[in-house]
Every structure is written in structure tokens, then in C-alpha cells.
Amino acid sequence: MAHKILIPLFNDDVAPRFDMATDVTLIKISSDGEINDRIIVLPQASADDLCALATSNHIDAVICGGIDDEHYQYLVWKGITVFDDVIGPVQQILEVYKIGKLASGTNIYTIPLSSL
User: Fold this and answer.
1) What does the pLDDT look like over 21-80, one tens digit per residue?
2) Do 7 and 25 touch, CB atoms closer than 8 A?
3) 0.85 exceeded by the pTM?
4) 60: Cβ contacts below 8 Å, ≥ 6 apart
5) CA triple 40-44-46, angle to 5 deg
């Protein structure tokens, strides 16, 4: 089964704050592990716009840094899994997600990948 993920970006890393990101990557991981992604640049940073983007694209999971409780609860209410307080490069975060080891609070910079 395919998974769709939304990750707010800060360069090549997960953005430290959900509400301050203007660049977002939408990633689709197919059942055979193939990854398709596209980057969307928003005209302005807006947590409401990111939530609308997530729901309109039928996203399964949002991976982000900090997110305020209102938007966190909204996404969860919409059936979207939220991994918050995640820190690290998007490509490494995706590898951790694909093997089912991603959790809220994951900081790639403090844990060796060999331990995952």
C-alpha cells in the first residue's frame, strides 16, 4: 500500500517549525518502495495552508519539527499521523520512516543510523 508524506523543508532538512516553512515536499512511497516526490513552494508561510495541502492531497503522515497544538490536533483529527519534533536531513528521515523506526522526537544528528 502506498504512503503519502508531507514534510516542511528548511533546505535539505526537516523545517524546525511547521508554521514557518514555505517549501514543502510531498512524497509518495509505493508498495514496492519506489519514491516519487515533488517540492511545492508556498507564497507565504502558513500552518493553515500546510494543513489544507495535507488534507487535499490525502496525506497519510506529516513529518515536521515543532508544530503548535491546534494544528497538530487538527491533523490527527483528520486521520493524519504526525511525527513532530523530528530533526535531520529529509533523505535520512525517509530511510528511518521506510523501515518503520521513525517516532516523534527523532533526532538523526544524535543517533547513529547503525543503531536503527
Assistant:
1) 999 999 999 988 888 999 999 999 999 999 999 999 999 999 999 999 999 999 999 999
2) yes
3) yes
4) 3, 4, 5, 80, 81
5) 90
